[in-house]
Amino acid sequence: MSQHATAHVSGHYIGGEWIDGHGSVTFESENPATGESLATFRRGTAADVDAALAAAEDAFEEWRSLSYIDRAEYLWDIYHELRDRHAELGEIVSRECGKEISEGKADVTEAWHMVEWAAGNARHPHGDVVPSEVAGKDSYMRRKPRGVVSCITPWNFPVAIPFWHMAIALVEGNTVVWKPAEQTPWCGQIIAEMFEDAGIPDGVFNMVQGYGDAGSALVDDSRVDTVLFTGSAEVGHEIADTVGGEPGKLAACEMGGKNGIIVTEDADLDIAVHSAVMSSFKTTGQRCVSAERLIVHTDVYDEFKARFVEIAEDIAVGDPLEASTFMGPAIEADHVAKIRSHNELAVEEGAEVLVDRFELEAAEIPDGHAEGHWVGPFVYEIEYDGDLRCLNEECFGPHVALLEYDGDVERALEIHNDTPYGLAGAIISEDYRQLNAFRDRADVGLAYANLPCIGAEVQLPFGGVKKSGNGYPSAREAIEAVTERTAWTMNNSTEIEMAQGLSADITTSED
Ligand code: UN1
């Protein structure tokens, strides 16, 4: 696809073919930094999802009968293409979702890391040899694919997260129907082209472009064995509820957070300020692991506040394609409105506003970018109260609260854990006891010490607790959600001998 494909309308990839599908509605991919249209796509319908699921179901038996290593070969082709096209694809990510260019490129890097992990894992053991009580028995834990996997992915990691889902699902022997986020269909189109270039057998990988209605069709259909979802808590909980009622079907939902960083009285403040700025403002606060709460000990509060505020006042918001930019725009106009309402809510609840760059000065907006969805940092301090909505509801923007605490690390942890979410968090301290207290007691799936709470690597399980996840981590651990385990026991003897001392004698009335 060319870099300006507005004249052309791109369709869906189903059963090894590019098709227009059943619907007549199209939608645009928009550059959030300029408002310009990048390309036009067909909006998928329930009938298109139906066709894709039929193709995926048809392709399953043949695909599962290949070896892991043969299946992984297709992914290695994609791995090389991702690497070869790094700069080009990084720029496309930045243009389509507004992340600054180093983040656009890191998204592509994270994608090939995941492909490398999943395809490399094809040569690693996939189960365990388990001892038996009975010498003549061999027991094994084996894995087999679940079948058809639906993947629904977000716009903020438009290349990496699709591969968190699909690389593992495919290597494990499942077939896939994927719906990319409606904000980033261009990245979706390119990834589908890569699968086509790799020559993946027809129907093994399918992509339907579209909105939530296509996503619902992908969740509801009885041919789907696993739904992999990464996105908002609102949608994720709906999916988990729907799927929970269907026996045999499984949903792995990774959602957001109201992530916090604790800065104790023993913190190195250079590390604290650096980590907080990265966690709150990188990706314009639009990571599910971004920090919206900074919980700072009273002994270091004033100094931390002064240093953090000074940077927030000045942080470079601008054209995502410029290397000097730290924060690009928000993804879309509706999201800007949502960020505004979170900022207003904090004020209504008594926030003392320290930095308000929500409306950027005209001079801060780069030339030719007036139609972009610009927002800057919003920093406030507020007295901690567990009932405040602003401390419980995720904004998904550059919106961050400073909370002063007094007392020991247990007090900081109490505040830290007092949200419905539990995805990521960090502690900044030079005292190893405080670090270990956080490691053991923070209600999060991703915990960091003396680091930002963003930037997890793919070889770690990625997932949260409480409202942030439903118990099936993504990335490396998606393997659990796309396979069934079989406990396989084989007898090498001609006698039947049972475990637990259970008698294997058959007695009859004659005995
Ligand atoms: C997300 O925040 O939506 O840990 C995903 C990170 C990235 C993935 C983030 N590897 O920051």
TrEMBL record:
Task: Report the InterPro entries cross-referenced here.
Answer: Ald_DH/histidinol_DH, Ald_DH_C, Ald_DH_N, Aldehyde_DH_dom, ALDH7A1-like
User: Which residues, if any, are the signal sequence?
Assistant: none
Which is one GO molecular function term here? aldehyde dehydrogenase (NAD+) activity
Which keywords describe this protein according to UniProt? NAD, Oxidoreductase
Q: Where is the Aldehyde dehydrogenase domain?
A: 18-485
Pfam families registered for this protein in UniProt = Aldedh
Return the similarity comment: Belongs to the aldehyde dehydrogenase family.
Provide the assembly information: Homotetramer.
Protein name in UniProt: Aldehyde dehydrogenase
Organism phylogeny: Archaea, Methanobacteriati, Methanobacteriota, Stenosarchaea group, Halobacteria
